[in-house]
Structure formats: C-alpha cells, structure tokens
Fold this protein.
Amino acid sequence: MGIKFIVKTTPPGPPVLECPQLTNNNGYIEVFVWNDSLYENGLINPGEGVVEDATVTLYNSSMLPIATSTTDPSGIVLFTTVLSGTYYIEVEKIAYSPTLKGVGANPLSNSHINVGTGITDAIVFNDSSGTHYTNAGLVI
C-alpha cells in the first residue's frame, strides 16, 4: 500500500500527481485509509489501525462525483476501469477529520488529503493503464 506518482509543481495552483504507466488493461485508483489518532503526525506508523467504512468519493476534473464506495475491513477502496483524465479523491468518516498532509520525505507513508477539505490534489492519468495508490490519514 502507498502511493506511486510523480509530483509536478505547475504554478499557480496545487501540485499535480502524475501516475506512472503499468502494464494492465485498466486504470485503477486504490485508496488506503488509516487511523492516525495514535501519533497524529500524518505518517503511517506501527500500531495504527485502519479506518473501516470511511466514505471515499472519486470526482472528475469538474469536481462532479463519478463513484463512491466505503473502505473494507483492510481500510481499502479500489476504483477500477478508470480512464485517462484528471481526478480528485475525497475521504470522509463521521467523527474523524484529516490528519497532516505530506509530512516527511517518503510519500509512501504519508497522507495525501488536504486538511481543510479531505480532498486530494489533482490526480492525472495519462492513459487507462496506470495504477494510482493514495493514503488518507484520519484522526478522531
């Protein structure tokens, strides 16, 4: 679990996340949601659990919802058959709020949702053969 992307800063505006190209036939977005209440540091740490039944919404580039699901007992949602385009991911759970975003140098172990909105920066698929992994830390 984790994220695989290249961060491009294209002022003005937030960073754009570009997905690497893999060799499967469909694009996938996998979201991992964990409970960061133990340390509240924006990083996935040993001993922190997952958040089951969090609502995860996939938006298109116009911020219109195109798919919604809830995390499974492993804290994961998988959106399949994602076509080329720009997307945003929102993560919500009653009584929880987003933890710190982008802490540390390793994007494989930090949260990618914005604290104020619970929504990621733009995620750009160049074609439909990529897989994008994103993490979302929540605190009570």
